[in-house]
Amino acid sequence: MRHYKGGICDKTIFYICSMVNVSVLVLRNALLASITDSVYVFEKVNEFLKADGKPPLFKIQLVGFTTDVKFNAGAYTIRTDAVFEQVKKTNLIIIPSLTGHIASSVYLNKDCCMWLINQYKNGSEIAGLCTGVTLLAFSGILNGKQCTTHWAHANEFRYYYPAVTLVDEKMITDQDGLYSSGGSNAYWNLLMHLVEKFTNRKMAIRTAKYFVIDLDKNNQSAFLIFQGQKDHGDELILKAQKFIENNYLTKYTVDQIADKFYVTRRTFERRFKKATRNTVAEYIQRVKMEAAKKQLELGRKTINEIMYDVGYADIQAFREVFKRITGITPLDYRNKYS
Asked: Are residues 204 and 129 in the same domain?
């Protein structure tokens, strides 16, 4: 069904296209809302089509390991329409967000990976909502490709899946029939993107208005809270990270920090990059910008005062670094979050 990419259905005559089979996966440790919201969106598009005197486009089915899947310690149960082995062919697969410890949740659902691989080889498109994309990465389908995920799990994702290019500043990604979305509610933006992909812009706008979604939001950088990669096991680099985070107001060169920990600059930079996925200079910048974001959120100081507080003397340089890391200017950030 990958022939939909590029838009045989992006004209006003999209309703003549054949039925699109959408398989929403009901996985263990899945976020219930991401399952029900996915179903609701495609059902609503079918309702809009019916109201316009057109036949429904989407045939939605719930697919899981068993016919009944329990959530929240048995408080809720979803009855699936089919189990994996019964679904031989589908057009679009929705992997819901996963909850809890993501690596453990992926392992609980690993037995569907071969089914995902076979479906993708047969032309199915696959969308991983938020942390659900981790299951797609685990399957190997994403190797050599880009994706995004919830920013809070970015470090963990990069550690476990180095063959995948994580662009965690992106709200959604779309590559070779594979889709992903960023943090939490970003999956709504991906669902709207899929509606536009399989129907047209007009229907996507109509659906977005109904669900009150900002249709063209494509960057989640402003929402990121920089935490640094800390689970790498390199004690020297952990100490260096702590030193940088506690002394970001003081201007230290990379050579001075390396000397402090009795290693050569070359060795220090190599180990730091390997452990944190950032150069030393990038890490210092991100720590400074995180401190600036917190000050801007409080709204008690001017932008110039905050700039000096985090160790910058050039307002243009401060703005450029801030915008590169967050995606918006310091003024826009303050207006948005103060």
From this structure: yes
